[in-house]
Amino acid sequence: MSSTSNPRDLRAELESLTTEAFRPELAGIDQLPTLDIARLMNAEDATVAAAVAQRLPEISAAIDAVAQRMERGGRLIYMGAGTAGRLGVLDASECPPTFNTAPSEVVGLIAGGPEALVTSIEGAEDSRELAEADLDALALTADDTVVGISASGRTPYAIAAVEHARSEGALTIGLSCNEHSALAAAAEHGIEVVVGPELLTGSTRLKAGTAQKLVLNMLSTITMIRLGKTYGNLMVDVRASNEKLRARSRRIVALATGADDAEIERALAATDGEVKNAILVVLAGVDGSTAARLLEESGGRLRAALTAAGG
What we know:
- The chain is α/β, with parallel strands linked by helices.
- Helices cover about 50% and strands about 10% of the residues.
């Protein structure tokens, strides 16, 4: 499917999309008691995880491809318009504090720029040129991954992003919520999570938005697990930038090592608060500088560093 400026053609195109389908059985929803509406909405939301489950093989293949490239220094770049773009920016912005990534490693771009996070930018989602310019500003490499996000799978900004990135040799992923979407067809890895018509006709911030959030959670989280950013299910690369995270850092070291509070404080002091290094200090019985060297030689992977230290 391709976008068109003809209003009649555009209406027909939208009416053909599952995400835009009208549900006559819900036509009287505005007359229901609030609790009944809440029950309906909750029942709708409960179907989203199953829809994502249908696409786990495609999601897993995409994650492995992303991790291979990020291992070589590539970036993960999300691109979308409206809700889809905001979800990409959200996921990207949470990677630095969670996994201690540099802001340039996982990037979220929204059609229309930062202002579009809080305000609708007229025409931005329809601009292919804007997507190409946004990517050109990043100087793509073959190790980068571009994820186009669009509930409909027809958003010109997202499709152009994927097509342009692919022409530059980057890995491409197309995440949509309709089958046979132009976005998935344009990407090397197409992920189509079909959640069905929305409670409010065409309001794809609902089930489609939830599905996209779940998939983006998987893309970033499992990629970071593959890159050694965790130790078991502990966020050992967490960046302790506030009191809550400092407390969490101490707890992570405790869970990983079983050490008492005094030993944990000494280890964190010896490693400038770096959780992964502190765990290595405790478990391997090395000093802070040795821990840093072992981790560097092990590509930041704590298990490998422990093995190298004989721990």
